[in-house]
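Project standup — Tuesday

K.O.: blocked on the structure for the chain from last sprint. Re-posting the sequence here as requested.
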Amino acid sequence: MREKIQISTDDLEFEAELADNLISRMKGLSFRSSGKMLFVFPRETRAKIDMMFLSKPLYLYFLNSKKEVIEVQRAELWTYDPRTWKFYSPDQRYRYLLESFENLKIKEGEDLNF
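H.V.: unblocked you, prediction finished:
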């Protein structure tokens, strides 16, 4: 079982799984249909996120080193058509990524506490 972490905003509090090593970041929420996961990268990155082996769309909340949401994206599923194989990342470097199957309604500019 993966380690859990408490996350909050001014209006919301929830628990997410922690992905703070290469293997857990590579696996992510693949092969699941529910849950939330916080990815912690060792430094700011431009890593691209794929939707391989996911059963439902995801909401991606990219955060900078100050834990401020810099971009929110809705990631769509891949199909057998390679034209659907999109990779997701913000226009700038990020340090943390919160993935969720549900729309948490967190907005760009909000700070997360964890």
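K.O.: great, moving the ticket to review. Residues 4-100 form a domain with the Jelly Rolls fold (CATH 2.60.120). The two ends are 20 Å apart (CA to CA).
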